[in-house]
Amino acid sequence: MSVRVFLVDDHALFRAGVRAELESITEEVEVVGEAGGVGEAVAGIAHHRPDVVLLDVHMPDGGGAEVLRQIRTKIPEVTFLALSVSDAAEDVINVIRAGARGYVTKTISSQELVKAVVRVSEGDAVFSPRLAGFVLDAFADRPGAAPISDPELDLLTPRERDVLRLLARGYAYKEIASELFISVKTVETHVSSVLRKTQLSNRYELSRWATDRRLV
């Protein structure tokens, strides 16, 4: 039987291209649906129950980590493979922490993408060559490596981490709102939530806290 795939990317032209490529070169993969945003993706995945979700990392309304957060507890049998233009270590680690089974960049060939989809559906972990090192560094038990689990950090939602990361980099609330496509009021709400969860008092303490956990 073919692997049933759901595409999530905010660029309709890219989704159309991936669908056409996958469906033209193999019968191993069947594209059963697609979505351009978090809400649409969550609803579509819940409806189609695909084997594998090809997931974009950055989207205006929350990104791949938010899709993972909402789906993983509801439909744990769905496997996620990140497909992104970004090869930044931060993006790779964040989406793997959120539950993705692999991460490949959009420079991947159609044939290699098919192989990656099939492999993650069979339980393998798949990464573009240079990205595997990021994951090993992040989860390895050695000095300087990020811990596999940080109970305090795990209290934060993916969006709260996004806000905290930009806050620690010195962004003003208005700049954070613009960067994440949310309102200033929403930024303030997220900052208040982070302060409450971390039991810290101000943005300067938050910046140090984020730096200590290599979020910046």
UniProtKB/TrEMBL annotation:
Residues 4-121 form the Response regulatory domain. The modification 4-aspartylphosphate is found at D56. InterPro entries: CheY-like_superfamily, NreC/VraR/RcsB-like_REC, Sig_transdc_resp-reg_C-effctor, Sig_transdc_resp-reg_receiver, Tscrpt_reg_LuxR_C, WalR-like. Keywords: DNA-binding, Phosphoprotein. The keyword Iron-sulfur does not apply. CDD domains: LuxR_C_like, REC_NarL-like. One of its GO terms (molecular function) is DNA binding. Residues 149-214 form the HTH luxR-type domain. It comes from the Bacteria. The keyword Phosphoprotein applies. It holds the Pfam family GerE. GO terms for biological process: phosphorelay signal transduction system; regulation of DNA-templated transcription. PANTHER family: TWO-COMPONENT RESPONSE REGULATOR. This is Two component transcriptional regulator, LuxR family. It comes from Lentzea albida.
